[in-house]
Design a protein that fits this description.
- The structure is a single chain.
- The chain is an alpha/beta fold.
- The chain has a single domain (11-127), classed as Response regulator (Rossmann fold, 3-Layer(aba) Sandwich).
- It contains 5 helices and 7 strands.
- It has helices at 19-31, 42-52, 68-78, 95-101, 116-127; strands at residues 11-15, 35-39, 56-60, 62-63, 66-67, 83-88, 108-111.
- The strands form 2 sheets. It has a 5-stranded parallel beta sheet with strand order 2-1-3-6-7, with helices on both faces. It has a two-stranded antiparallel sheet with strand order 4-5.
- The radius of gyration is 14 Å and the shape is globular.
């Protein structure tokens, strides 16, 4: 996890149509000294990603008007270096990950409820591979 003296800070985009979840995740990441922004829909996520170029996207598996997998692939096209972590309160079959694997992408899946330390560990592992604490 980054500490407050680490510059630059990793940028995290949280995409969830449930504002309470997005705001909670944003608070967790900001408290851990990440820059974090939220998007409540596909259009906001695309606009933020294009302008801000986040390092990590945490994407709800189910977002209105597009599957989470399709959104993740779109974000990867806009930001080639982005890491994606799917986050869902619903038990998800392997179909979602199979869908993105068929497109030669590797994304992680974290099922709620996840405690903040677990979420931050996943994020840190994706953003800083090889720096396991």
């Amino acid at each position: 996890m980054p500490d407050e003296n680490t510059v630059p800070t990793s940028k995290v985009l949280i995409v969830d149509d449930e504002a309470i979840i997005a705001d909670t995740l944003q608070a967790i990441f900001m408290q851990a000294h990440y820059e974090a922004r939220t998007a409540g829909n596909v259009e906001e996520a695309i606009a933020i990603a294009e302008a801000w170029q986040p390092d990590l996207a945490i994407v709800d598996v189910i977002v209105p008007r597009m599957s989470g997998a399709d959104l993740a692939l779109l974000l990867k096209g806009l930001c080639p270096d982005i890491h994606v972590l799917f986050f869902s309160g619903k038990s998800v079959s392997s179909d979602l990950l199979d869908q993105v694997h068929r497109k030669n992408e590797e994304f992680e899946l974290l099922v709620e409820p996840a405690r903040p330390p677990e979420l931050l560990h996943f994020a840190s592992r994706l953003l800083h591979p090889g720096c396991e604490a």
